[in-house]
Amino acid sequence: MILFLLAVILPYIVPVFWVHVLTEILIMGLFAASFNMIFGYMGQLTFGHAAYYGVGAYTTGLLMVKANVPLLVCLPLSMLSAGLCAAVLGYFCVKLRGIYFAILTMAFGQLVYYIIFQWYTFTGGDNGLQGIVPPAFLGKAANPYYFFTLIVVAIGMIALWIISESPFGYTMRAIRDNAERTEFIGINIQRYMHLNFIIAAMFAGLAGALWGPFNRSVAPDLCNWQHSGMPVFMAVMGGPFNFLGPLIGSAIYTMLMAFVTSFTEYWPMVSGIVIIVVVLVMPGGLLGLLGDKLPFLRQNGSDTKETNG
Amino acid sequence: MDITSLFTQFLSGLTYGTILFLVAAGLSLIFGVMNILNFAHAALWLMGAYFSYTFWNLMQEHSFAFWLSIPLAGFAAAAVGWFLEVVLIKRIYKRELHEQLLITYSIALILSDTIKLTWGVTNKLIVRPEIIRKPVFIFGSPLDSYFILVILSGAAVAIGLWWFLKYTRYGHIVKAAVHSREMVGALGIPIPRIYTWVFTLGIFLAGFAGGIQAPIGSITLGMDNAIIIQAFCVVVIGGFGSLLGTLVGSLIVGEVFSFTILFWPDGAMVLIFVITAAILIVRPWGLFGTPMRT
Question: 10-residue block means of pLDDT along chain B (294 residues)?
Fold first, then answer.
């Protein structure tokens, strides 16, 4: 709630550049939160989540550029298309666990990437799609699109929150903590994991859909494995065992990137060093670290899982 | 399509497969023994290519420069690999999967920028000696004579590795460690030291592969991004920790890529990922691997 109020007030205080950064934080935050449905709540590492983000981005991009479909219609359609992709690909992924799950999701992610990359006539190949303009009622300034993003992301986050706190969400935690036992009490874990995979992909698709009009273009790079690594890092940085962790991670990562890239082109090196320090020094992420040091900040004890690094 | 051009295509697929084999063999070894998926492998491969350029450049006036620069690139990369293992990788063997992936991924990012800082953004070109500049004709089909050298050196490395694993004491230890680290440790063999040397050996292979790759075309930044994913595909198809599997996997990927590009250029990479995904679904441990303990 405090975060939300802060998010409403901030754009009136900070310069335009930082409003763009804030918009990016929100979009990537939703992306990272959707990733965390699989990672934090289901306990599987996906290294191909950018594929669904990219499918969402391209659905909106193609619909807006080629068919002039209004953005508000595009958003649910992007969720649908990302969800459909996940329904097909996720069916195979959830049969595997651990490292094999990570590699298969990565292989599928690269599959989607190369299809988009090579299909010049439809997706524009490596040129991407240009000229995706936000609808007229949002104008050309940074602020209106920021507020639009804020509303959509807030709705998305609330939906994810409800899902993660529902019996379904607790079933996911049970699968994460002990898949065998969960199966013994009569739960079809593969079907639940598949469903969760689809839900996560749908919200990644929604985040992707917001990206196109924000950036005025989409490129195939949105789907490749490097882009899939970003939500992993954001979730780890913020704290995967806290619902808001990925959003916080996104805020830190994106602001750091905006700050560092303003004076050096060697952002990858800086980010690499930051990632190494974060992983070695605070395995539970920032919120995990705060939770350990200041117990009263812990939202609800059941949510934080012990990490034995 | 006549038979000669098919043969040419086959040989170029074989060359590409050889490079992939050299990269993937180290990747597979490191994964097989330590369970670490090394995202930084291809960055070290690229570093090897740049190292060989530097060595070649330094010794340019000598006739042996070209030949010496390739193994030296392997040793230089191995030194970097050894350093990384001792400083960083050592700390993450017992960590969780995502932490290991993030660390090796970060190392890849750092190395890529280090390469950019050290060697700049301009492409580097190694000029080959006279004898391997002209194409040779095999059954009437022209072939870059350097490709034959690539294939032969790949075969030599494969045989060398096979001999090492089969007939030397350290090879036996490595093979045993793929099956059960605990048991090897219980026999009193210093596991941490074995890990360091397995990692160094794997990176030596990567650097050597980089050195072999360098004279094929020019050396450019970002070459590593494509090859790391393909090397993963090779390792997945062949099976983690299996030398034979890596060999077969790299030949499959090399040839499939080389032939698909003739008939359906846009689909070559897509097809490789379809094959990889299919193997993962049907046989997650790969064609020649054994089901893993994790």
Answer: 78 89 91 87 93 87 81 92 92 86 91 90 80 73 80 90 88 82 83 90 93 85 84 88 89 90 82 88 81 54
Q: Looking at this predicted complex, what is its ipTM?
A: 0.84
| Residue range of the domain that includes B163 | 3-223
Whether B46 maps to a domain, the answer reads yes
Q: Which residues of A touch B (CB under 8 A)?
A: 39, 45, 47, 92, 95-96, 98-100, 102-104, 106-108, 110-111, 114-115, 118-119, 225-226, 229, 232-233, 236, 266, 268-269, 271-273, 275-276, 279-280, 283, 307, 309
Which two structure tokens, joined as six digits, stand for A290? 């705060």
Residue B58 lies in a domain: yes
| Residue spans per domain, chain A | 2-227
Strand partners, B138: B141
pLDDT 10s digits, A237-269: 888 888 888 999 999 999 998 889 888 888 889
Q: Are B110 and A269 in contact (CB under 8 A)?
A: yes
* A41 backbone dihedrals φ, ψ, rounded to 5°: -95, -30
Q: Which residues of B touch A (CB under 8 A)?
A: 35, 37, 88, 91-92, 95-99, 101-103, 105-110, 112-114, 116-117, 225, 229, 232-233, 236, 266-267, 269-270, 273-274, 276-277, 280-281, 284, 292, 294
Number of structural domains in chain B: 1
- DSSP H/E element including B177: helix B169-179
Six-digit token string for B92: 């993450």
